[in-house]
Amino acid sequence: MVAIGTRINEIGTLVRDGGAFYLSRDVGGRYELELHRTPVDLVEKRVRLIGTLVGPDLVNADGVAPA
């Protein structure tokens, strides 16, 4: 298990489920994202996520960009 406060830098697919966004991780599993902007143009596309783990499977995203 990854410790809270760990920096995250991963690639996966950005998924929108209702009002929430998730990163479907290439290594398996998914992270729920706390986003500072809504990247609707990147939904269902491969992206790189950079952020900080702030809870179990919850990442405060510094950035989401095309991979």
Describe this structure in words.
Strand 2 and strand 3 (30-34) form a beta hairpin. This protein has a five-stranded mixed beta barrel with strand order 1-2-3-5-4. The mean pLDDT is 96. It contains no helices and five strands. The termini are far apart. Helix content is 0%, strand content 61%. The chain is globular, with a radius of gyration of 11 Å. With 67 residues, the protein is an all-beta fold.
Rg over CA atoms: 11 Å
Instruction: Going across the biggest sheet, name each strand in turn.
Output: 1-2-3-5-4
N-C termini distance: 25 Å
What would you call the structural class? mainly beta
Main sheet record: 5 strands, mixed, barrel
The portion of residues forming beta strands comes to over 45%
Low-confidence stretches: none
Annotation field: number of helices:
0
| Helix-residue proportion | under 10%
Shape: globular
- SSE string, helix = H, strand = E? EEEEE
Based on DSSP secondary structure assignment, what is the total number of beta strands? 5
Arithmetic mean of pLDDT: 96
